[in-house]
Design brief:
Immunoglobulin-like; 15 strands; globular; single chain; alpha+beta; 30% helix
Length: 319
């Protein structure tokens, strides 16, 4: 029966990529560059290279991140309109085929039609999107963490196109999570997994596979000291109800842990009447990157050194 695979294909193609501002494109490109560097550094550490040296070598191998980001940013903005039109065309085609197939099956008493599918649709259905992302989140002693948020981004390249999807899971009592039917089994895919929990540091990992199932992802989250941020206007006025979104944690040794912007909306905090927001995913000595957005503004990126617990970091932003 073709209905099941067809509906799965439609579900994965139906979500049109959200329009982004130029700054959001820049943030996404910086995330991508950071993940490539982190993945390369992890490979070097697996070969026995010390962490700091591995990150230094990975950055040197990658080249100048600013130059690469500028080139990617220009290309991404130039292709945005074409990308949206292509995505909408594919979505419309899939919807039409699903309707045609359902109508044909209805008219033939449930028997599959003998006529071939329209060009291009058959190749989409050949991708088996039944791969799961599963694993367990633990504390530093190996005990399961309940109610941890697991933020997953899946990247695929079906038919030489690029698709990126974001998913969210919450761990059960035994610390486990499961996100079903999110990656193909018979083609290349990449998965980025980030985990957060109150009182625990942000941690992430990156996984690449040519095909097949993804091994269970296991992460241990160490205790955090937290980061208190006070947001003020450029004139020094404290700003309530400002959105603050944690994005990246860089350990003192250079290891980076990130969340993709598309997957991180559940982590948004708002400043209180004093203009303060608590970000519980960092610890003293880390470098914390986060985004700030006022009611009328765009997301603005900030980076601070995380102080000792109890100290407040003040940042100023344009309204």
């Amino acid at each position: 029966m073709m209905i099941g695979p067809m509906l799965r294909a439609l579900r994965h193609y139906l979500r049109t990529p959200a329009a982004r501002s130029a700054e959001q494109f820049g943030d996404a490109i910086e995330e991508e560059i950071a993940f490539h560097i982190a993945a390369r550094a992890q490979e070097l550490m697996d070969r026995g290279l010390p962490e700091a040296e591995a990150y230094r070598a990975a950055r040197q191998k990658f080249g100048d991140p600013s130059r690469v980001a500028a080139e990617c940013h220009e290309a991404a903005l130039g292709g945005l309109i074409v990308w949206h039109r292509l995505h909408l065309a594919v979505t419309a085609s899939l919807a039409a085929v699903v309707g045609w197939l359902c109508l044909t099956l209805f008219r033939t008493d449930g028997h599959a039609p003998s006529s071939p599918l329209p060009p291009g649709i058959a190749s989409m259905l050949a991708h088996d999107w039944t791969g799961d992302v599963a694993g367990q989140i633990r504390d530093e002693a190996g005990r399961p963490l309940q109610n941890a948020q697991v933020l997953v981004v899946v990247k695929t390249w079906p038919d030489h196109s690029y698709f990126q999807r974001a998913y969210l899971a919450v761990t059960t009592r035994d610390g486990r999570f499961l996100i079903q039917d999110v990656h193909p089994l018979n083609e290349r895919y990449e998965v980025q997994v980030a985990a957060v929990a109150n009182g625990r540091v942000l941690k992430s990992s990156y996984h690449s596979a040519a095909a097949g199932e993804l091994d269970p992802v296991v992460m241990e989250l160490a205790p955090s000291s937290g980061l208190a941020v006070q947001v003020e206007s450029e004139q020094g006025t404290r700003l309530p109800d400002v959105e603050v979104l944690p994005q990246r944690r860089i350990e003192a040794g250079g290891t980076e842990h990130l969340v993709y912007f598309d997957s991180a909306q559940s982590l948004v905090r708002r400043t209180d009447d004093r203009g303060r927001a608590e970000l519980p995913y960092f610890r003293s000595g880390d470098t914390a990157n986060f985004l700030v957005r006022t009611a009328q503004g765009e997301w603005k990126s900030h980076a601070v050194k995380v102080p000792d617990a109890g100290e407040v970091v003040t940042i100023r932003t344009a309204l």
